[in-house]
Design goal:
Helix 9 runs antiparallel to helix 10. The chain folds into 3 domains: 132 residues, Serine Threonine Protein Phosphatase 5, Tetratricopeptide repeat (Alpha Horseshoe), CATH 1.25.40.10; 74 residues, Immunoglobulin-like (Sandwich), CATH 2.60.40; 80 residues. The chain is rod-shaped, with a radius of gyration of 52 Å. It is α+β, with helices and mostly antiparallel strands.
């Protein structure tokens, strides 16, 4: 049964060398009943299926997909064979630093098992070959960066790593220098396989802040626009009171010189021009007094309203929001007193 499993694993991976045997042995270990000490049967069944999917993806040269599957298996049970397959996928993807670590892990785990001693030798030789390919990057502090925090690919470099060669994957890397919370320097470093490169972080005085905490005096001063007086429109109450005053005065004058005067004339006729009046003239006299009182009241209210309205208008004149600049040129205006040229005046302003 074990032989059949080994053959199935080899066919799935399409490998003729030791990696094929390593993948098959890993599958066999996952299938073995003795491996179910710490994991449930359901977890192991799922890991077996996932491992087969990883082998198929690896055989199809889909290393990214295979790596996801192998890491999922490792989360259930890590074996030397699983570590070897992870390292192999990472090597093909250019993740040499991580591949080196997993090759070393597979070598160390397989060293004590005589059944897979060849796997240990193969992992060791792969690790040695990768070590020669991994580039080394040395980051140093330059002028202005003596106290800066240096980050390589988002990870802060420790004091022991600065000025010391650090193994990195080939390709571009982002190097950032920070002072406090501010990014003061940013550069991209591209490095090839087997290359050793030194990069100096320099922060110029223009980039370097004098103090991490901004001072109030350092805030940029915004230009102050000249303030314009608030625009005030005409006084609405003043206009209303003025109108009421004019109407009151007009009503008083109309009553005084209209119905009141006609009533007085009628009373003079009834009284015969002297101070003795017959009883029948009492109604006419009362009507005359009524008209006189209404006329005086209307005129009094009108005068008071007119005076108050004029005062309100005078104390709250209408002002424009801004004073327009004098414009030079010639303009036409409509008909006005003294207009010439057919009712049009020509005026100029300079």
């Amino acid at each position: 049964m074990k032989t059949l499993l080994l053959d199935a694993g080899a066919r799935a991976a399409r490998r003729a060398s030791l990696p094929a045997a390593a993948a098959a042995i890993a599958l066999g270990l996952l299938l073995a009943p003795s491996s179910a000490n710490a994991q449930s049967k359901e977890e192991l069944d799922k890991a077996r299926a996932t491992f087969r999917e990883g082998l198929a993806l690896s055989a199809a040269n889909n290393c990214s997909g295979a790596l996801v599957k192998f890491k999922a298996v490792a989360a259930v049970k890590m074996t030397p064979q699983v570590a070897f397959n992870i390292a192999e996928c990472e090597e093909k993807l250019g993740k040499l630093v991580s591949a080196l670590g997993n090759y070393r892990l597979a070598e160390s785990a397989a060293a004590g098992d005589p059944k897979i001693k060849d796997l240990a030798a193969q992992a060791g030789s792969r690790a040695t070959a990768i070590e020669e390919r991994i580039p080394k990057l040395t980051v140093t502090r330059g002028k202005g960066a003596e106290a800066a925090q240096l980050e390589l690919d988002g990870v802060e470099l420790s004091r022991s790593q600065i000025g010391t060669p650090v193994t990195v994957d080939p390709g571009p890397h982002l190097l950032i220098g920070r002072i406090g919370d501010r990014e003061a320097s940013r550069q991209t470093v591209d490095i090839e396989e087997k290359e050793s490169k030194t990069v100096e972080v320099v922060i110029t005085e223009a980039e370097k802040p004098a103090d991490d905490k901004p001072k109030l005096d350092d805030k940029p001063q915004l230009p102050v626009e000249p303030t314009q007086p608030a625009s005030r429109g005409p006084s609405i109450p003043g206009i209303v009171l003025t109108g009421v005053g004019v109407a009151g005065i007009a009503a008083g004058l109309v009553l005084f010189f209209g119905p009141r005067q006609s009533t007085i004339d009628e009373l003079d006729t009834l009284c015969g021009g002297d101070n003795t009046c017959p009883p029948s003239a009492k109604a006419t006299a009362d009507q005359g007094r009524l008209y006189t009182g209404i006329a005086e009241a209307a005129a009094g209210v009108g005068i008071a309203s007119l005076v108050t309205g004029v005062i309100l208008i005078a104390t709250n004149p209408s002002k424009p929001a801004s004073t327009p600049k004098a414009q030079s040129g010639v303009r036409f205006i409509g008909a006005a007193p003294g207009a010439t040229l057919g009712g049009v005046s020509l005026t100029g302003r300079f």
